[in-house]
Design a protein that fits this description.
The complex is a heterodimer of chains A (264) and B (134). Chain A is α/β, with parallel strands linked by helices and 264 residues long. Chain A is built from nine helices and seven strands. Helix content of chain A is 41%, strand content 14%. Chain B has 134 residues and is mainly α. The longest helix of chain B is centred in the last third of the chain and has 52 residues, at 66-117. Classes of the chains: A alpha/beta (264), B mainly alpha (134). Chains A and B meet through helix 9 of A and helix 1, helix 2 and helix 4 of B.
Amino acid sequence: MTAVEEIAIGKRNGTAALRRLAIVPAYNEERTIEAVVQAIRQDAPEFKVLVVDDGSTDRTARLAEAAGAEVLVHPFNLGIGGAMQSGYRYAFRQGYDFAIQIDGDGQHDPAEVRSLIEAIDADGVDMAYGSRFLVNSGYRAPIGRRLGIRLFSVVLSAICRQKITDPTSGFRLCNRRAIELFARDYPHDYPEVEAILMVHAHRLRMREVPVLMHPRRDGRSSITRGESIYYMIKVMLAIFVGLFRRRPVPEAGAEAPVVAERGI
Amino acid sequence: MDTKLQLLAIAASGILLLIIFELLRRRRLIERYALIWLGSGVVLLVLAVWTGLLEIVSKALGIAYPPNALFAFAFGFVLLLLMHFSIAISRLSGETKVLAQDVARLDRELRELRAAQGTEAEQPGSELVSEPRR
């Protein structure tokens, strides 16, 4: 980024240059990671790119670094929740003001980052996330997945008292408060739905923004059919139990509301 | 089964379910394992409420004495669960080993960097290494 651009961005926000981080969780994405990193650097140049390589056994980390990303490498696979939390912890520790989460498989379009930024700028929400279902994009998920998303959407909309059409979307922009929340506590596996519930429970504000998403470039989801049944049950249980959990509003310097698993 | 005993069995499995729920709420148990225990709690509750079920199942399997069916299932379930935990512990110890090795490597690299910068030269090995508690 040139200095002129940096000043322009700073002026637009009325502050000295805000620090923005794009977190890209990736597990064996050597076929798409370079293109994803390059697309972010081109279409959202005010974002630094952090690729969290979640224990890949292929060249994901090397290719990401060659494409100009900062890379965190997990020594083994922690799952998407662990990878995202690594990214949020990095963003928190390094003092970033905004962090956006972009999948490493190329289904999110970095050009759409603009609409998420505008949502946060205009509404002052703590988290803005892209929904595939607010505009008719011709996106058709398999029927089982559509039903699952619909179920989560109905349940979460009722709990959060606001319309949530795409709770499984992984295309999310967080401000500093939301970064801090997720740095302290992030759900284990299949985290997106529970993360929405956390945002609500900690009284942060969120907003959906219509976006288009590409079909995955190599056409497979990280979730297989057998896993999706476990996914449904696990997330419903987590939502239900979450209703009975006291959620402290995180404050800087306070003890983390969550301790790691003990005694296993 | 007489009524008092049945009520006791229902109460016991109800309490088991409550304990699992509370552990989950306090995050002492993650959902993955809670689901296994919730499942077994529900099965126990169903067996306690519907006392005829055990007889139907054991008859269908040709087991003469219904409680034996219960013991057989319980034993099989516990065996599977133990195997599952052995697998999980094996994975965890492998991961812990890798973490320790990586920390050792990072520690060495950090000391090399500091030495190269001429800043504080810390001695290798720390008195703070704690004995694992048995």
